From TrEMBL:
Domain of life: Eukaryota
SUPFAM superfamilies: FAD/NAD(P)-binding domain
Keywords assigned: FAD, Flavoprotein, Oxidoreductase
Protein name, as recorded: FAD/NAD(P)-binding domain-containing protein
Biased composition (Basic residues): 12-21
Family note: Belongs to the FAD-dependent oxidoreductase family.
UniProt source species: Strombidinopsis acuminata
Transmembrane spans: none
The keyword Oxidoreductase is annotated on this UniProt entry: yes
GO molecular function: electron-transferring-flavoprotein dehydrogenase activity; flavin adenine dinucleotide binding
Any Pfam family matching the protein: Pyr_redox_2
Region ranges (Disordered): 1-25
Length: 431
């Protein structure tokens, strides 16, 4: 095997579509994308336009959940159905779908948990990161996911203590959503490993801490001992410093890494953090016919502003690969001014603020100037003037949270992706 000594052994199953030694020009080449999230969708939309490519997306779940809205759905489970849809509505024209969890990578095919082999000529890894309960578990059924969301929603509304672990953008949003719906006397704790929103500027961190304090969220410094486990029943949360918290609901809101465990046996494909090791063409350094989007060893945060340019780089290089040429498009970080999400939501009706330092310079300028230029007059049909909470300052307000989460994002996202997911409202946009 050209995957090296640790590569999985070839199985004895029959493989009707094994790659032939050379492909005739008329034969479509098989581009297989593992992952039907934003990374997979954007890549597929680009690659499917290319002549001579037959594109297959392998997707673990047979439903389409808009998990960006999870903090909202977990606290208002009655809205979950609006954020989930069948895959049928959101399938990309011309793309074939396979449902199942990939458990093994071989030199010329990937194997699903069911044992089914899916052969490829070019493979794109778009597997995303895991975040228990915030995102559906790999291979979970729609029914299981719905029941889980209902159970958490019910538990939060009856809880005496809710512990949210992780004070990044998702944790900070989640903890305020919990505060919005939990009983008045519920103790709501945010476990923070360092500063709240440590990836953002000090100014933003201070703003967030101020809002948390005002909302009565208790911030506890500490780090989880052991695995991130979500719970909707009473349990003990153990911290590394020996302290522990009793909680009725535990919501881990940090990622435990990319979902690349099945690649670990293939030598040189992933690094110690489980990120796919790529070259400047986003091609696996160890495997030229494998590319990665959204799960590579790049210093870019995970957001659509970063993923989309990665997908375009990969699509261009897949085109080269299909033509039998070496990759030509070097990856350049997209929206390089953006080092952290420019918009932070805290709950859906609590607070939101924009960080102009992470907005495109003209938008940042407009956002700072305030009414009558904020937003630009051409945007007034969707976004009325001065919706951001005040002139001549960084936009922040309760109204901004409400506007972005209930109005702007559902419209924007539904225009672009995940068309099949219910009515898509309300949701949120952070980045
Ligand atoms: C709560 C929350 C809010 C967010 N808000 C924003 C936002 O406002 N703006 C923004 O830009 N970004 C936001 N993000 C980040 C954004 O959602 C991600 O960056 C982006 O969606 C990642 O897309 P992806 O396709 O790489 O991964 P995913 O969406 O995780 O998709 C990966 C897919 O691969 C499938 N998969 C993985 N492993 C396998 C396997 N072995 N076999 C088969 N299938 C597999 C999974 O089932 C999954 O469907 C948010 C994230 C969260 C959690």
């Amino acid at each position: 095997s050209h995957f090296g000594s640790r590569a999985p052994k070839a199985t004895t199953r029959s493989r009707p579509h094994r790659r032939r030694a050379s492909l005739s020009p008329s034969m479509a080449q098989r581009v297989v994308i593992i992952g039907g999230g934003n990374s997979g969708i954007i890549t597929a939309q680009e690659v499917v336009k290319q002549k001579g490519a037959s594109v297959t997306i392998i997707q673990a779940e047979e439903f389409n959940e808009w998990y960006i809205a999870s903090p909202y759905c977990l606290t208002r489970p009655e809205t979950h159905s609006k954020h989930v849809g069948s895959m049928d509505k959101s399938k990309i024209k011309g793309v074939t779908y396979e449902f199942g969890v990939v458990t093994q990578l071989n030199p010329e095919d990937v194997v699903l948990k069911s044992g089914k082999s899916v052969p490829f000529d070019v493979l794109v890894l778009a597997v995303g990161f895991s975040m228990p309960i915030i995102k559906p578990a790999l291979g979970q059924s729609w029914q299981e996911r719905s029941l889980e969301v209902q159970a958490y929603g019910k538990a939060i509304k009856a809880a005496k203590t809710v512990v949210v672990v992780g004070s990044g953008p998702v944790g900070v949003e989640m903890v305020c959503d919990v505060k919005e719906v939990a009983p008045k006397d519920c103790r709501v704790v945010l476990v923070s490993r360092g500063a709240v929103l440590s990836g953002s500027s000090e100014k933003i961190q201070q703003k967030a801490e101020g809002v948390l304090k005002q909302q009565g969220v208790e911030v506890v410094q500490g780090e989880l001992a052991g695995e991130a486990v979500a719970s909707a029943t009473r349990t003990t949360v153990n911290l590394k410093d020996g302290n522990s918290l009793e909680a009725d609901v535990v919501l881990p809101c940090f990622t435990s890494g990319f979902q690349t465990g099945f690649l670990a046996s293939v030598q040189g494909l992933t690094d110690e953090r489980g990120r796919v090791v790529v070259n400047e063409f986003l091609q696996c350094a160890a495997q030229p016919k494998i590319f990665a989007v959204g799960c590579a060893n790049l210093n870019e945060f995970s957001g659509i502003a970063k993923i989309e340019p990665q997908a375009k780089t990969v699509a261009a290089n897949v085109k080269c690969a299909l033509a039998g040429k070496p990759p030509a498009k070097k990856h350049k970080e997209g929206n390089s001014f953006m080092k952290a999400p420019p918009l932070q939501i805290m709950g859906h009706d609590t607070w939101a603020f924009m960080d102009p330092a992470n907005l495109p310079p003209p938008v940042a300028c407009c956002a700072r100037i305030g009414f009558p230029c904020c937003p630009l007059p051409c945007c007034w049909c969707c976004c009325p003037p001065c919706c951001c909470g005040g002139p001549c300052q960084d936009p922040e307000s309760r109204g901004l949270a409400s506007f972005m989460t209930h109005t702007a994002t559902p419209k924007l996202m539904n225009m672009r992706m995940h068309k099949g997911a219910g009515e898509l409202a309300p949701a949120q946009m952070q980045m």
